[in-house]
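Appendix B, Record 12. Input sequence as logged:
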Amino acid sequence: MTAPATDDRPGGLLAWQWSLYPRAHTTHRNLAVHALTAPFFVAGTVALLASPWVRSLGLALGGAAAMVAVMLVQMRSHLTEPAAPATFRGPLDVIQRFLAEQWITFPRYILSGEFVRAWRGEPISRR
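Logged structural output:
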């Protein structure tokens, strides 16, 4: 199920992203990639945000590089999914959606048990 880029995202970004998440995260490969790379995105974000306080350009560059690398790997892993992710509205949408996914939606997916159900291959309608 691909949502159009011009959708109004009922309930806001997080509710919209959560409603589409199960259909876009079903294959073992994509689930494993997300599980292995999401912590690097979070660490990269923390490094980037901490870099001004520790006055480290290397920390900023390393954090940004980690975030970009995770985005590229995860985008590629989505090619293994039967349902394509929703189209991005533009560069700002890419940033907003990735931050929301890595910091909120994916951890919620794990903590809610949805990740395990997806890994087991349980039908989405039951979830």
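Confidence is low (pLDDT under 50) at residues 1-6.
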